[in-house]
């Protein structure tokens, strides 16, 4: 695979700062983040001939100032915000030839600066009435599933498809803080303000990050801090035993409580703006409160109590289910597990516990309904967890632009059209995602997978952004500033390949929301029965007559009852259930007619032929665009698209062959099925 | 799992030497192996009060003497062999109260000694007319798939189920030569006389055993030598490049030939009785002559030429096939591969090339037809390769006594009832097997898996031995000498559990010879479609109507044509094909009536219910035998039988559910299928 000599600048190429860098800019404000803003402008100015001015040294083209600053130039005074805009918000306006960004706090200045960067020359044209910007989601967080030691199966980064960790290598900090700084800058530019720096599966070495290896974490915090990003840590619930030498980790044990209080105090002594703990407990082999006959509220509150004096939070993952299920037992339903475990605990969690819920009830499949837990716990702070790393969506070998899926999740209204949507529910709270970057020169392995990280940050800031518009932003930052060819064609090529790529991926993989037809273990490529007879709780129940999981109340596992109306009725009803989720909720005969008018079996054939063809078409589009991109990047993407086309055909043929062998129904259009 | 404190003596417990050790014995003969015999007797005598006498110091109860020895006592002279009995043969007789073993060479004395050990007190009772014993197979060889470095996937021992290697640990020799010596002794006692000490997949470190790490091999050879065992080495065909620094490994290149000649000369300087090279070439990623446009005769002859001056041999594996096959392509047939590659080369191999052919055409499945290659190359020395390590037969967690399968292979007559059998074809040649031992205290993980290693050695010496009789020998050596309870019940228990265990295993796993329904990669436990859509060439083609691989000439891949008549006709015929191989040769509807009178689908259900029940029955038998065995050994086997019962039920349920879902045919006996 083609590899460039240096690290790719992603959505912050120097050329993206040309508009700012050629202007006269005033930066007014004190504090670490204001210095960052000043340095960014100074660097751009040095490159493009502009200047950073002092107060009184006007005229200015751009003013970036704190509302509290003295000596605000007149035009800035005119655009003062109507009210407090929060510690990350800003007002953007342009009057009388001066572009103004005002913020109450330095973080707002930083986000305002990157807004101006996104606008480019448009920031300096015409007039612009005052726009108030503030993030819809208070904590916009990335979870790194990075190991410190190389895990024998999962490697340095669990579910990482972009090389090693940028933080850790072979059991030690990597020490490449310049790379971490570049990463922090990219994150700030898309709005991320929190990061967890190690895997939620906390192995032996990683458990020590909390105590004797805390210095390693502090070194990272020092690099993230100037970009407004607080560092969090994944900890083992068994830490009191594993690193503390106590005989128990019982959350109601006084020594255990004291241990956590002491340890947490030392953490804040070292990292005063430390964010908090992330915990995967009683899940897939990780230790938890169940070992002591306690529940998850007991467990989470233990850590929350220790963090509370310092303003820290616990992200407590709701991904708890029986991963040793008997596949013969059709009454147990993994989809029900998170709700069954957590909904009864609503109201029992401390204020600084954030229950972190995967967006779907199973596990980051390309298509799942929204988790019913999100709407089921009004008295609990709930964070929604997305997966930027493409574990089940092509592993950064396939183009799969995920923003449209996330937009659907965030726009889902659990109580129907008149109620709040998921974005409202997490508003003021947390949106979390699993990172997709590594030490690959393109950060994300697949260069086009950078768009997913960018889009996550932007959606966390403003969940109602249109995915197409986000892609435009990303293209205009990443490719356009340094482009030499036809930028309209470049933009069109990327939209053609990326806009619908998630639905393309869905078409050629598991059909109609049924999920989990991937190869066990690594989860890449098709294996229709790969999980069918395993303890993982992920089944499709295909037989010669039909396929799908009956999760109705009437005849199935009753999962539909975890939703409020109208969804409890919509999903329950074979007639009303959306086609794309049909097999998630119902077991139907192959001849069942979908709302689309097609039968299930013909839908399977049609979508799989179509999906593979769309992948091939994306490959052809990319080849035609050979002159529009940097040659090394073009070559890398071409190699990956070749693999995507091959793998899409493999999916098409395996899925079609499997269902043809089972159903005996020929393709109505007479295409070849192996 | 229960682990004893010390290494288990396997079939050589001290008590097995009680009969000899309490007698007056004369050992007459010079040489290393005669010394071994002398030391064995001396050790036993020290324990049990007997004595080793000098010539002229009679009377004796036992005489072990070379025919060339001077001062043979009279009774020995009377039993002189009729003719030369070869360098490993011996004559055994008893006259006038004296048991006599005579051999032409010291190795014969050693094998004769172990014969007397097997007989125990029976060796010293009554009269015994002279019996001439000599091995049917000249080279009785074990291949160790042991790595020197720990392989990231395969571990220290590839397909090893008994812990680490007894030779290597973490990249270096283990240095536990006492353990190697104990192993050599066990091997000699069952008749093994050759051993290859490293994996046929030769990785980077292991390639150096041939050159700068040859001393590691010599140290092992020194330990094996006193037990009549010659050491062989697996080498990389790419050695001239990999360790020699040459630009090519082309077998027709003069520098390459010279390199092999030089290197081999140095090997024999260091290990004068070195056995030769084992090579896996152009197979599953291993380098070979194809890279240079040469064929396997060119490749094998290159090494043979280098070894010839020293009497060494090349074992050249015939396991060559396309492991990147397109599963959609039903015309390519992995079963054909070895014949297609090698049969045309018959007559082109040098005399000291031994073509090493797996016993079946695919890969050590619990049931395969005998490979047609074995009978197809009359002008080539052919070795048959068996697999003692239970890769596909329960991985030493299941009881699976393999001697009945091997006996069937050795007794197969490619030209029908009037022709030679496989044992004849390898007679005077080689029988090879992949070892099943490791550093586990019981050597083989499952204590009862020791019987497989013992049986392999005994069948290699005398291929027409009855597996039940071999099991008796093994029980009488391993358990009876130190038993304190009811030895008849002990013997009966083991026969009940072991005699039919291979057929039990066959019953609950892949049906009717179809093979490969194991979990990909590690090959343990069921996954019916696990290999169905992969590049490995191992398919069953089950659909809603039927199952099996059509390998006929009439409508299939033509594999049946690789057999001479009558088998080419028997296997071709749906009516005549043996039931147990039906799905290996034919694709049939589920309603097809077998020769047994059952339908295919009902046979699948019946055998799977029966097999799982037989496994459970074995578990109950073992529990009843709790007082008859050493408690630690009993506990170990009990744990393993629990796992076998669980896994057999898993096989039963997955196979039955799979075929019920696909066929829709209910069980005629109304049993529950999940």
TrEMBL record, chains A, B:
Record-listed E.C. numbers: 3.2.1.131
InterPro entries: A-glucoronidase_C_sf, GH, Glyco_hydro_67_aGlcAse, Glyco_hydro_67_aGlcAse_N, Glyco_hydro_67_C, Glyco_hydro_67_cat, Hex-like_dom2
Keyword list, A-Z: Carbohydrate metabolism, Glycosidase, Hydrolase, Polysaccharide degradation, Xylan degradation
Residue span, Alpha glucuronidase N-terminal domain: 35-115
Glycosyl hydrolase family 67 catalytic domain span: 132-443
Domain of life from the UniProt record: Bacteria
SUPFAM superfamilies found in the cross-reference section: (Trans)glycosidases (SSF51445), beta-N-acetylhexosaminidase-like domain (SSF55545)
Stored Pfam families: Glyco_hydro_67C, Glyco_hydro_67M, Glyco_hydro_67N
Transmembrane segments: none
Catalyses which reaction(s): Hydrolysis of (1->2)-alpha-D-(4-O-methyl)glucuronosyl links in the main chain of hardwood xylans
Domain Glycosyl hydrolase family 67 C-terminal intervals: 444-671
Subunit field text: Homodimer.
Family that this chain belongs to: Belongs to the glycosyl hydrolase 67 family.
Annotated protein name in UniProt: Xylan alpha-1,2-glucuronidase
Species of provenance: Microbispora hainanensis
């Amino acid at each position: 695979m083609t590899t460039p000599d240096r690290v790719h600048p992603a959505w912050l190429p120097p050329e993206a700062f040309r508009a700012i860098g050629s202007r006269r800019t005033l930066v007014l404000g004190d504090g670490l983040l204001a210095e960052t803003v000043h340095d960014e402008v100074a660097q751009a100015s040095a490159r493009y001939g502009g200047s950073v001015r002092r107060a009184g040294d006007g005229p200015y083209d751009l003013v970036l100032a704190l509302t509290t600053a003295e000596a605000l130039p007149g035009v800035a005074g005119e655009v003062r915000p109507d009210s407090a805009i929060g510690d990350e918000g800003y007002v953007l306006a342009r009057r009388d030839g001066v572009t103004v960004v005002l913020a109450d706090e330095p973080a707002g200045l930083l986000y305002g600066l990157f807004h101006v960067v996104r606008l480019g020359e448009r920031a300096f044209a015409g007039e612009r009435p005052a726009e108030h910007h503030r993030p819809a989601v208070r904590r916009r967080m990335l979870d790194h599933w990075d190991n410190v030691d190389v895990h024998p199966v999962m490697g340095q980064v669990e579910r990482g498809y972009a090389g090693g960790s940028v933080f850790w290598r072979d059991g030690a900090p990597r020490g490449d803080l310049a790379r971490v700084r570049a990463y922090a800058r990219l994150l700030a530019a898309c709005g991320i303000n929190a990061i967890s720096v190690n895997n939620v599966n906390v192995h032996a070495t990683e458990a020590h990050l909390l105590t004797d290896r805390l210095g390693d974490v502090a070194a990272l915090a020092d690099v993230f801090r100037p970009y407004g990003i607080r560092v969090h840590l994944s900890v083992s619930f068994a830490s009191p035993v594993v690193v503390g030498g106590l005989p128990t980790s019982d959350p109601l044990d006084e020594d255990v409580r004291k241990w956590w209080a002491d340890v947490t105090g030392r953490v804040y002594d070292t990292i005063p703006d430390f964010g908090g703990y992330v915990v995967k407990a009683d899940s897939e082999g990780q230790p938890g409160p169940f070992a002591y006959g306690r529940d998850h509220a007991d467990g989470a509150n233990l850590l929350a109590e220790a963090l509370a004096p310092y303003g820290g939070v616990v992200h407590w993952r709701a991904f708890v289910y029986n991963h040793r299920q008997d596949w013969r037992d059709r009454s147990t339903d993994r989809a029900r597990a998170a709700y069954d475990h957590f909904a009864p605990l609503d109201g029992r969690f401390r204020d600084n516990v954030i229950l972190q819920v995967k967006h779907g009830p199973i596990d980051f499949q390309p298509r799942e309904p929204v988790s019913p837990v999100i709407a089921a716990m009004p008295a609990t702070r709930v964070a929604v967890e997305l997966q930027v790393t493409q574990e089940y969506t092509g592993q950064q070998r396939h183009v799969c632009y995920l923003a449209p899926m996330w937009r659907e999740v965030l726009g889902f209204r659990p109580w129907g059209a008149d109620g709040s949507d998921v974005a409202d529910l997490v508003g003021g709270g947390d949106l979390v995602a699993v990172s997709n970057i590594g030490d690959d020169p393109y950060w994300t392995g697949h260069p086009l997978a950078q768009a997913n990280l960018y889009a996550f940050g932007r959606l966390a800031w403003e969940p109602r952004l249109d995915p197409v518009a986000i892609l435009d932003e990303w293209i205009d930052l990443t490719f356009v500033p340094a482009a030499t060819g036809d930028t309209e064609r470049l933009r069109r090529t990327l939209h053609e390949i990326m806009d619908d790529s998630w639905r393309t991926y869905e078409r050629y993989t598991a059909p109609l929301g049924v999920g989990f037809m991937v190869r066990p273990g690594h989860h890449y490529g098709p294996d229709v029965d790969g999980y069918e007879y395993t303890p993982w709780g992920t089944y499709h129940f295909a037989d010669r007559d039909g396929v799908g999981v009956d999760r109705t109340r009437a005849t199935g596992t009753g999962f539909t009852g975890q939703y409020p109306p109208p969804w409890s009725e919509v999903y329950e009803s074979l007639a009303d259930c959306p086609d794309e989720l049909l097999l998630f909720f119902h077991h139907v005969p192959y001849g069942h007619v979908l709302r689309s008018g097609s039968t299930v079996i013909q839908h399977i054939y049609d979508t799989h032929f179509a999906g593979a063809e769309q992948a091939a078409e994306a490959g052809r589009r990319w080849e035609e665009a050979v002159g529009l991109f940097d040659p090394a990047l073009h070559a890398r993407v071409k190699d990956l698209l070749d693999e995507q086309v091959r793998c899409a055909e493999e999916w098409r043929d395996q899925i079609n062959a499997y269902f043809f062998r089972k159903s005996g129904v020929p393709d109505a259009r007479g295409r070849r099925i192996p």
